[in-house]
Design goal:
The protein is mainly beta and 200 residues long. It is built from three helices and twelve strands.
């Protein structure tokens, strides 16, 4: 496998363009009532639609790492800056991922922004069964015992504050405690099912 295993999800929007707003209905009509605790099941076609739409979305590529007896890590395209005060980030991880048990137990995680020269590193951390921390991967133990990858554009260490169930994934929210933004270089992108470089 040479592609990230997680995927972002689009925000819902009404016909008025307000994100998260309920759609407007003609006068006299009442929309379907759904319990917030039991949303209607999505059709397989909706999943296919989401994947097709997000193939058109160019996303930055990151690697998330977690400490443990054996360090864990995976390639992610769902990294998001959530808030500046407190400084929060989020990312999605599948519960069937080999890295999930480590992320589920970790108090701190590492987030690494990859450069365009690191396509092979991104592929290694996305590949099932790969020994992701073996050479030629270069890394060291960083703050809070988190594995920190070397040669990246930038990195963060963050304290996990919440793991929110989201379908077959968990949305992990974490507060930044350390990092370095000064690695330099152009970022790696993921678009149309492959890793690619930023074009000027």
């Amino acid at each position: 496998m040479t592609a990230p295993t997680d995927l972002g999800t689009p925000a819902s929007a009404s016909s008025s363009g307000r994100t998260g707003a309920r759609p407007l209905l003609p006068a006299g009509r009442v929309g379907p009532q759904h319990s917030p605790l039991a949303p209607p099941a999505a059709s397989p076609a909706a999943g296919d639609l989401l994947r097709a739409v997000f193939r058109q979305h160019a996303a930055g590529v990151a690697i998330v790492t977690a400490p443990g007896e054996r360090p864990a890590g995976f390639t992610a395209t769902s990294l998001t800056s959530v808030a500046a005060d407190p400084p929060l980030i989020s990312f999605g991880v599948g519960t069937t991922s080999s890295s999930w048990p480590a992320v589920a137990e970790a108090e701190h995680i590492g987030v690494h922004i990859l450069g365009e020269h690191q396509m092979e590193l991104a592929a290694t951390f996305a590949r099932s069964g790969a020994d992701r921390f073996a050479p030629p991967t270069r890394w060291h133990t960083g703050p809070e015992g988190v594995p920190v990858l070397e040669g990246v554009v930038a990195w963060l260490v963050a304290r996990v504050v919440e793991r929110v169930p989201a379908g077959d994934h968990r949305l992990v929210i974490a507060e930044v405690v350390a990092g370095d933004p000064a690695g330099g270089g152009s970022p790696l992108l993921y678009h149309r099912g492959r890793f690619t470089a930023l074009r000027d």
